[in-house]
Amino acid sequence: MTGPRERAPEAPKEHGPAEPKGHGTAAPRFSWPERFRSHGAAAGPEQSRDRLIELARETWTVTRLLAASTLDVAEFEAKLALAEAVHALVEVAASCEERADELGAAPKPGQRLGTEEREARLAAALAAPPRQRLVTLPRKWLTPLIRSFEDRPFDPLLDGPSERVRRRGLSDLRDAFGWFAEAADADAERLERADGQGELTDPGHPGIRRSTPAARTARRPTMGRRDERFTTFENTRDYRGAADWRDTGSPYDNDLLELVRVNRDEIDALETFALALFDLAAEADLESLRHLARLTWDEARHAAIGQELLGERFGDPYAHECSMIGIRIRGQMGGWNAWTQITVFGELGIIGPMRALAREARRRGDERVAHAFGFITSDETMHLRESRRLLDRDHPSGGLGQAADAAREEAGRILEGLGLYDAEHFAQLDERQIFELLGE
Asked: When you count CB atoms within 10 A of the terminal residue's CB, does the N or C end of the chain come out lower?
């Protein structure tokens, strides 16, 4: 006979963190997910909502500072980084507002920007010399915004959606702001040497005393600036008629040269959408603001693509003059009309030539050009479709036709004031002729 079977010895019990009460007495199979542990926070839905709205307001303030800076900060690389950061910040601010709406009430557009004191601080920042502002951005604006998101956690169990908005926002902000810290470190020493020696004097950005009414209203620049490596021309967008045009001897290369210059000079398109975002932040809905931020980022990408292709195919990209007429006109227009002008009279005119170039590049086996312009035309088609829909819905003048008339009239007055074109004659131009004059 065999004796009774011996029991295997029991495995020692592991003692992990105490499990939440109310989950039974059976030994847990897995550890409890961290995001489902309540911190026991005393805050309720109303407090979470108010905190989200405040985070959104802080983010909108920094967004407007960066959007305005896309115009008057001259360095090309900085414009690209500013445009990308603007897109990231608008997504963060919009997510905060949308979650606040789920909790009961998002701020109405007129309540979005917050306090007079915050507006005065923004006005003072925009009055500083642009180069100095760029270097002080991390310390005075970007790092404090990150800390606001770090210091205001939400209960991960009771208010998991708000905590997710906060964590994703924090990740996006850190990603978007990395370039600025490096740039500030690289330029700070030069600025310190120049400070007090006149180099930072900027007659276009006089100081604003906080006691004046202007100190309470942040005003953006009305003209874009260009990197000192560029030579510019300001009276047309006609590259083949410009002084620096050189015929390559190849129709394909001529088209390519023209269109990569068009895209490199979409610096003024990113500036246009950024200024519209600055102007409309207080009144437009989130859908329009998100769209404008996306346009700003896309046009920065297009400008970088154009610059890269210029360098790859046609030598030093800075040797090709940069057209300024688009921002020279649109910078003086209000946000609604600037957005309308570039949409109705700009983007529609450029899609066809770029699509034709992409087809010819594919036929020739030029994949680099085919892929680049394939993505750009995809972007521009979306821009045109969505911008026309939103402007038709929301432009203060009424539908898209009235919006186009308002933008045409304002642009004509500005052109005449600059001595570039007779306003009455400009009013007779069709969309193609306006595109040829002002570009995208």
From this structure: N
